[in-house]
Amino acid sequence: MIGIFIFYGLQKMGKRHKSIYGIFFILLFIVSCAPEERTAVSDSNPIQTTPSEQPIIQSTLSTLPSQEEISDLENSLQTSNSAGQTQDEDNQESAQSEGEGGSQITDTSTVSTTTSTVSTTTSTVSTTTSTVSTTTSTVTLTTTTSSTLPAQTLPYLSDEGVLSAFASYKPFFQERKEMTPPSPEVSYSFTEGSGKVLLSAPHSTNHIREGSVKIVDYCTGPLIEILHDLTNAPIIYLQYQSTDPNYYNDVPYKTALSSYLENHPEIELVIDIHGAAEDKPFDVDLGTMNGNSLFDYSNLPEVFGNKFHERGIMTISDNYFTAQGQSTVTKFAAGKNVDAVQVEINRAYRCKNDSNDLKMIRALESIIKQYQ
Q1: What is the pTM of this model?
Q2: Is-contact 199 224, C-beta < 8 A?
Q3: 226, 169 in Cβ contact below 8 A?
Q4: Is 101 helix (H, G, I), strand (E, B) or coil?
């Protein structure tokens, strides 16, 4: 009787499921013909089931599916397999797109959220329960980019670390001080930052003025590099021997500076760093065009002087170099209604990599943070 039912069932099933149900009926036949062996196995190694599985097993062993139920099951499986195949193809394309850079920030002026859904469909056939189950799990990946950068926490540098970093920047400027730029557009370097203060070093390499090469203001480039590390202030400096941006306006350096000031109205003070010879009668000179480059910060010389004094830098002069004779950076910034000062630093406080250098770095760090 069981053999007739097996033969009849297999004839009526679709080809796709004959193998699965053939295995099921053969196992059922073996179990029904050998009750003693089944009992022995059950006694020695009983099948462990959860309470939720027991009704399913009992129901399956006690009843067989009708032909109408088998047909419905075939239709359901065909529909599920077709949908699952389509979903898998969509998931592969989505995963490939994400792997090629879906999480990269390509435009920081917008805030965007990208959501990818990955679905996995798994079909299992249980030989003990003849139950076909489909499980779907969903994983959601979200990437958010923002035009507003979080407040940056700058790493603390010890005095030894400051001097070490300061020294590490010197070879770059030493190697390039006499090099001609590949193009005028790359004669300078600009590093963006945050806050209200912008630092400039237009003589960080050799520079050309009226056809003559003028010697670099040594260590002014490394100086604003380490100040950027300590304060995250934006910086601009000359990185190749080029036309003097502190003497001419029609140069890429000034074009970049002008563009940044126009697009960043938060900048309220430009500090232009220069170097003076060691025989000059000052430690630091503040050039403010005799006060004409200051609008909102008329007390700047007093504030700067106090910060330098706190660090033991005592001789501060006022407009030894006025910064108004040529097309200076200070004059250029003031022409855009931005407060500016030309800071001339004596060689004794720039390039010895000693306690004097450290005093200058820490004093300027304190000044920048005062105005940020």
Answers
A1: 0.61
A2: yes
A3: yes
A4: helix
